[in-house]
Design a protein that fits this description.
By secondary structure, the protein is α+β, with helices and mostly antiparallel strands. It contains 25 helices and 22 strands.
């Protein structure tokens, strides 16, 4: 009966029902969409056997607390001396040129050590894992391919086993196909065995390590054991391992380390939107209750208890909430797809987000919680109506003042306060994002096309042939019409592949206290193509070949650090990049933000590509031109003329920069949208309360005007009431925002969480919008006819 009556009541008030459902569906849909992403990324277990036993191991630098890559000798000692693991392996991964047919293309390839697949507990669905002999041979012995690669390149045929892929300058046979859902690491398509003697230097940190805990070993026990091993290595090898320990972390936690705070921030933001929506609907229900005073009084007069009345009213709220939940679920499906499309590419397992059983349960629970939040208080309030007064006054002002009026005012204050918190966060993110976009990058990204390339090579001779191919290709590209500069680099600005220690003028012993620099490799012309200024000396040229004395460029940051008040030209630098040969400094270039716009420039060592051929088989070709993407076709044809085995991937320097700012852009956009929704809902609340107040005070206003109050007096009276509510909300909200935004400090760039300009702007915006929301009811009040108002009473 309660349910039928609730549905009839909503049908009699379709406008109220649609508005309430829309407001709540917006809040529930936004929460469900964000939760679907949080569930997929943070809460779902990894799709492996016993996923909680899979951990990552990393070098732990005690001085900074940072985690880093691992050297091969350290790994072997960890593996041999630990007893807490069933399996442990290291790996490296990158995109490289692969030919499965007549054309070269990029594929993501991972080189792994023997126990890698035991860590994840996976076996091929077709074929087998690497044999002991293939593992001993290392790269070139055999490959495994992903299920998707098998389907797309071999049509899912078992005849693929035994066929060869052309990569790294050799043909390598396929021996197995991995299960459909296994793509670790980084959506890998091909796996091959790592060289058994891949690294001999403890200072060469080039690998990532994963392990599987034994069933009877806990994470804490494994960490204690690895800390002891790290301490022994630090004492045994002080030159390389002093101040270095081992960090053991569950792999799922490590995967989401960089995105966890952002996702929880979004979940908190949509929770505030939902609370504002609940307060808005509660105000609507209180206003609607005024017209039902007589109905409730009659129910009570014929014997209905207060509990019975509350149950009926609560049922109506529950029906509203469930309808809003269903509508919110539809919005959530669209919102979840939008979140996936907008999210940065480095968010793990994002593709797994969607509407599943957990998300449905969350939506149901959220709808019921919303029912409690917006339905209980109005139901209790209307059930307290004085029976005699209600029967005497009918649907008049029984609920217009007193406790109900104070409740409506409190709800508006809460809406404004919550909006202030969201607006303050959005304002800080917007100011931070603007500062990020206006920071000096040290180069000119406009009109620069970037072509990623990879020349197959597996040894020094092949790598030197690759550098000759690049030399000829760059010369041909420079002759194309509309090209003003051409160069190539191993790592475009914003991407760092290598960094490490360096020595000045003499080769010393590696130690953690040595200064660090970014290692870059460039071809002649790259500085001009990127617009990086040459401050002193000369650029690389055709004489900087493999057989010539090694040369190097440094940036101003390194010059300031290592040559204060000196001329660095002519000095020698040694580093552990790929050779310990001395390199003469021939030039000083301007500072570039190598780690992206948010990180200040670091010392940088720039080496000519011909003198470092092994790391230069995969370069990004840089073309400065005003012709834009129209040059992609001619450039690709030039590449094909030189080699059919070189895959290409086109982008622009601007697009690469956009990838570096994807995470702050994502946060700023979504928090801004949620804040805008919150402000609209809060101002709707202000308007609703003020309009309701004007309707209830029509007689009072008529009396005031009959006694001589002017139109301006009435306007000021109503506007003052609206601004008083807004002012109270601002006061509460600003205090809460100052406390809450401290959590955002690590996400802000060149903006303090207590930035006064942001808070002044938030207060001014809300005051202006609140004034506009109050003005319409105030103007209607000022037009009240005194005689009409008096006759109504």
């Amino acid at each position: 009966m309660d349910l039928k009556f609730a549905l009839r009541s909503l049908r009699r008030n379709p406008g109220f029902a649609l508005l309430a459902v829309f407001v709540m569906a917006l809040g529930i849909g936004a929460n469900t969409a964000v939760f679907s992403v949080v569930n997929a990324v943070l809460l779902k277990p990894l799709a492996y056997r016993d996923p909680d036993r899979i951990v990552t191991l990393a070098s732990l630098w005690k001085s900074s607390g940072g985690h880093g890559l691992v050297s091969a000798p350290d790994f072997h000692d960890w593996h041999d001396q630990s007893t807490a693991f069933d399996a442990m392996a290291y790996y490296s991964a990158d995109s490289t040129a692969v030919m499965a047919g007549g054309a070269a293309e990029y594929a993501h390839v991972a080189a792994v050590t023997p126990e890698f697949f035991r860590v994840f507990g996976v076996e091929p669905v077709v074929g087998r894992l690497f044999s002991a002999q293939e593992e001993k041979e290392g790269i070139g012995g055999a490959v495994l391919v992903s299920y998707a690669y098998w389907q797309s390149h071999f049509g899912g045929s078992t005849a693929a086993i035994g066929q060869s892929l052309r990569m790294l300058g050799k043909s390598i046979p396929i021996v197995g196909v991995m299960p459909p859902r296994f793509r670790f690491p980084d959506e890998s398509e091909i796996w091959l065995p790592e060289e058994s003697d891949a690294g001999t230097s403890r200072s060469g940190h080039n690998y990532r390590v994963v392990g599987r805990l034994k069933p009877d070993a806990t994470l804490e026990q494994a960490q204690a054991q690895m800390t002891a091993i790290g301490g022994r290595l630090a004492r045994q090898y002080p030159d390389s391992n002093k101040g270095k320990s081992v960090a053991v972390v569950r792999m799922r936690d490590e995967m989401v380390r960089n995105v966890r705070l952002t996702l929880y921030l979004l979940l908190g933001a949509v929770a505030l939107v939902l609370l504002i929506g609940c307060a808005n609907v509660a105000n609507l229900l209180l206003a609607k209750a005024t017209s039902r005073t007589r109905e409730i009084a009659i129910r009570a007069a014929v014997g209905a208890s207060r509990g019975r009345i509350v149950r009926q009213l609560f049922t109506e709220s529950a029906v509203l909430a469930l309808i809003a939940g269903a509508a919110g679920l539809l919005l959530a499906k669209w919102g979840s797809d939008a979140l996936v499309a907008l999210a940065p590419g480095n968010v793990p397992r994002l593709a797994e987000s969607g509407i599943d059983g957990w998300v449905l349960a969350f939506t149901l629970g959220l709808s019921l919680a919303a029912c409690l939040l917006f339905g209980l208080a109005p139901a209790l309030e209307i059930s307290r109506v004085d029976l005699n007064e209600a029967l005497k006054q009918g649907a008049s002002r029984v609920l217009s003042g007193g406790r109900s009026g104070r409740m409506r005012a409190a709800l508006v204050v809460a809406e404004v306060a919550l909006s202030v918190v969201l607006l303050a966060g959005a304002g800080l993110f917007i100011r931070s994002f603007v500062a990020l976009h206006h920071v000096a990058l040290g180069f000119q990204p406009d009109h620069v096309l970037v072509m990623e390339t990879s020349v197959p090579a597996s040894d020094l001779a092949g790598a030197r042939r690759a550098t000759h191919l690049y030399k000829d290709l760059l010369a041909d590209l420079a002759a194309l019409p509309g090209v003003s500069a051409v160069g190539a680099t191993r790592n475009p600005p914003g991407i760092v592949y290598s960094d490490g220690a360096y020595f000045i003028d003499h080769m010393g012993r590696f130690s953690p206290s040595l200064p660090d620099a970014v290692y870059s490799v460039m071809a002649p012309g790259a500085l001009a193509a990127l617009g990086i200024p040459l401050k002193r000396g000369r650029d690389f040229n055709g004489r900087d070949t493999y057989d010539a004395p090694f040369t190097v460029l440094i940036n101003e940051a390194l010059a300031r650090k290592s040559f204060p008040g000196q001329d660095p030209l002519g000095h020698m630098i040694y580093c552990g990049f790929d050779s310990l040969k001395p390199m003469r400094i021939v030039g000083v270039v301007g500072d570039v933000r190598q780690y992206g716009p948010a990180v200040p420039p670091a010392p940088e060592i720039i080496m000519p590509y011909e003198q470092h051929p092994l790391p230069s088989t995969g370069l990004s070709v840089l073309v400065r031109t005003t012709a834009g993407t129209a040059l992609w076709g001619p450039i690709q044809r030039k590449v094909r003329e030189h080699s059919a085995e070189v895959p290409v991937k086109f982008t622009s320097m601007q697009d690469l920069l956009a990838e570096n700012t994807a995470a702050p852009r994502f946060r700023t956009l979504l928090i801004g949208i949620f804040a805008a929704i919150a402000v609209c809902l809060a101002m709707a609340g202000v308007y609703g309360v003020m309009a309701f107040s004007v309707g209830q005070r029509a007689n009072e206003i008529g009396v005031r005007m009959a006694l001589g109050a002017s139109t301006g007096d009435v306007l000021r009276l109503i506007l003052l009431q609206g601004m008083l509510l807004t002012g109270m909300g601002l006061a509460v909200g600003l205090i809460a925002a100052i406390a809450a935004t401290r959590l955002l400090t690590s996400m802000l760039f060149e903006v303090q969480a207590s930035d006064p300009l942001t808070y002044v702007g938030v207060a001014a915006l809300l005051a202006a919008v609140s004034l506009a929301a109050s003005y319409i009811p105030a103007r209607r009040a000022a037009r009240v006819d005194p005689m009409t108002a008096l006759r109504q009473d």
